[in-house]
User: What shape does this take?
Amino acid sequence: MTGKNAFYAQSGGVTSVINASACGLIETARKHKKHINKVYAGRNGIIGALAEDLIDTSKESASAIAALRHTPGGAFGSCRYKLKGLDESRAQYERLIEVFKAHDIGYFFYNGGGDSMDTAHKVSQIGKKLGYPITCVGVPKTVDNDLPFTDTCPGFGSVAKYVAISTKEAALDVQSMCATSTKVFILEVMGRHAGWIAAAGGLAGQGSAEPPHIILFPEVPFNAKAFYARVKECVTKYGYCVIVVSEGARYKDGRFLAESTTKDAFGHAQLGGVAPVLANMIKDKLGYKFHYAVADYLQRAARHIASKTDVNQAYAMGKAAVEFAIKGNNAVMPIIKRTSDKPYRWKVDSAQLSKVANKEKMMPKKFISKDGFGITKACRTYLEPLIKGEDYPPYKNGLPIYVQLKNIAVKKKLKNDFKI
Amino acid sequence: MTGKNAFYAQSGGVTSVINASACGLIETARKHKKHINKVYAGRNGIIGALAEDLIDTSKESASAIAALRHTPGGAFGSCRYKLKGLDESRAQYERLIEVFKAHDIGYFFYNGGGDSMDTAHKVSQIGKKLGYPITCVGVPKTVDNDLPFTDTCPGFGSVAKYVAISTKEAALDVQSMCATSTKVFILEVMGRHAGWIAAAGGLAGQGSAEPPHIILFPEVPFNAKAFYARVKECVTKYGYCVIVVSEGARYKDGRFLAESTTKDAFGHAQLGGVAPVLANMIKDKLGYKFHYAVADYLQRAARHIASKTDVNQAYAMGKAAVEFAIKGNNAVMPIIKRTSDKPYRWKVDSAQLSKVANKEKMMPKKFISKDGFGITKACRTYLEPLIKGEDYPPYKNGLPIYVQLKNIAVKKKLKNDFKI
Assistant: This one.
């Protein structure tokens, strides 16, 4: 006897370890045939469910699934698509039920961030509200590190490691060049609402003399005067200044620094990001030669330097999701619970989706130094274990061996299309 | 009996492996006390010689010197400072001799690119022309890969590896997102005159369907019409388009694409780089959502993912420089000579500085595909071995352990200062 099929989808921006969660989930499901027959993945996330475009993961070899553990990106495709409430979007939920029924799907696993946990929560209610019983478990993922309850979000630790290492490396470069050339280096990182990723840059050095000398957080209103003073102080004292800036850095009135830029010939704002804006401000005011980097997707795709802690946690979340589901736990999300800082110890726990949905975990004030330009010891204690350990992918001819799955579609059973 | 002292300096933009050359040079010198007493490094390159600001590397432990092999940046500081000809800048050369005499320096090692080899060549002539005999050996280094005679330049292989891996990883990200979000991803890389680094992005995929779909080289005049057509074709066929662009990409008339940008309120050109310019062009013409990254210093500092081949070659160049010098070879530069493609085999050879100086090695035409947007098989055969092998630094608490030397100054012997 085998169980019902499971639906799994990746949602929102991907990470370098979201496939490690998929790996944990599929490998664990394969060990519990009695409860879960096949895992069908949505092609391009929830859109795959609405379009009845399901991927039969049982067609993938054990080694291909194992390779997901070290492959970045979203192996089945992700999407930015938010389901509204049951009342507003009844047709969509009814379509989901139609597809789930047609493919004998009894489990719904949704791998994403805050919005996705909201969707997962809504789907968990269709048993009661629309009469289709389904066990629904969220799988946490987001580089933004903003899900509540969990110690951290899979995906964040690896971005944090990438940003800390990149800051450290680029700082050595500018330090070498500063006598006659570049004096200021700016690294722009992700984080529109919260400064978690920028904070990770702070791990590159200790004390005010070591780079990064300045971190700009979305949580701290930008103070141009204090900023210029600190840049000048660093160049004078240390010969150079390294800055990590969150894309969400903003003025007191909420305007993003990245917006304070000129319009092009068509009246569009120049989409230069915050780094070039800051660089030009420094050039104009202080005259220093600068360089800047924009990490963008590189930071969240950099599986080559993923955090081992993060990879292990991502895998554990996928595994736990299946274990919760086969115990019949509906409307939950596995979380990471920290039980000790030094040494870092954690265990798997769970949170109710109803409590997780649409709640953002912001950086605590005590994590940002008094001058607003750095991280505190408390922040360091929190962040350090998350970047610990390396988990190198296998290489061939100098390049990582990342898997591309066959992604064979499950034969459609429904006659009608559904307009997305 | 011990020999004369040696002067070593790092010059121009640093790389993730220039310190590996320093390591090879210092370790080898330490084995030949009979010929070379101490290695004095110039603090901030040649400026250290002119200012009599010498670093006594004999004060560094064997383990600190060994750690240079895996530490990026320039451990003694570098500079952008070009010595003019002997006739034009006689005072500078006389000052060099004054400092060399005062510190019993009989060897001059200069670690840099084309300009630096020109300087090294000029210094090699001061024996004949100014009566101060010195053995002068250049040590090749440049991420630009544009030195002649040598198969490749230490520093390039590691940037190439970083760019190839980053392209591959970011491509998996955008491939996951393209159904509902980002359709175009652009990675801006270094290379103002030659497209070597951009070409390395091409190693990320094979064939026209695999990313990167477009590479923009400085060697190929930008053709907007063909470019838009290819971007559109990729998005239509594959769902997304990945572009690697050299900072030196330019129009037929020589103008850089990066210049074709608007002025800010002060009339300054917006310093946005080429990636945002391209991104906005695509947005305006084709309407696709985009992301872009600017790798900047990250690419040439990324020791965490250096090429093992590159590290070995960088070390070998430093070692060979000493071996040439103690044999009395003046005015030479060690080079890498490729003896076989598959398997890649190379040996150390030498070139005359007089022939190396101020000569740029451009990408051969046969390395760029007919449509101008990709690399050929010949290019791949050349590039592939250069990124081969990983050479991970040691880690502690999730971060690479990079060494900061003590850099203790040699006591000054001269009374007079010299205006740089």
